[in-house]
């Protein structure tokens, strides 16, 4: 068996998985079971604009008020689903954003510098 594993990298060798017993629904707290249902339900019924005919569909469009109201409903849904990042996640986001800002600034500097050299 050791001779077979000699040529195989460690990453490709099979690691035996621990057998964990399945979680029964009765073991999950009631609050956690209800959470996905609360997230998926909209807070207010959404108005859907459905024209009666194809010709009416081309002429009639949702009013600006309907568009604004739909936007507000979608914003509420997104805010309800999102969560606040923890400290580690926040630091990671700040680091990645900072690297991106520095990279874009460096590219802008190079373009300006090359423009001055060439012209």
Question: What would the keywords be for this entry?
Answer:
single chain, 119 residues, mainly alpha, 5 helices, 61% helix, flat
Strand/helix succession: HHHHH
Average of pLDDT: 79
Note the beta-strand portion: under 5%
Q: Total strand count, please?
A: 0
In whole angstroms, the N-to-C terminal distance is 69 Å
Low-confidence stretches: none
- Gyration radius, rounded: 28 Å
Helix content: 55-70%
**Total number of helical segments?**
5
**Morphology call:** flat
Q: How does the major sheet shape up?
A: none
Structural class: mainly alpha
List the helices and strands and how they pair.
Layout: H1 2-6, H2 30-40, H3 54-59, H4 64-81, H5 87-118
Can you put this structure into words, describing what you see?
- The structure is a single chain.
- By secondary structure, this protein is mostly helical.
- The chain has a domain at 85-119.
- The chain contains five helices and no strands.
- The protein has helices spanning 2-6, 30-40, 54-59, 64-81, 87-118.
- The protein is flat and about 70 Å long.
């Amino acid at each position: 068996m050791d001779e077979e594993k000699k040529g195989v990298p460690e990453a490709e060798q099979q690691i035996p998985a621990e057998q964990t017993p399945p979680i029964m629904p009765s073991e999950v707290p009631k609050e956690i079971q209800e959470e996905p249902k609360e997230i998926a339900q909209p807070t207010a019924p959404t108005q859907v604009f459905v024209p009666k005919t194809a010709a009416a569909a081309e002429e009639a469009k949702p009013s600006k008020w309907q568009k604004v109201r739909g936007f507000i409903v979608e914003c509420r849904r997104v805010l309800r689903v999102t969560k606040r990042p923890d400290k580690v996640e926040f630091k990671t986001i700040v680091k990645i954003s900072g690297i991106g800002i520095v990279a874009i600034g460096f590219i802008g500097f190079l373009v300006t510098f090359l423009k001055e050299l060439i012209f």
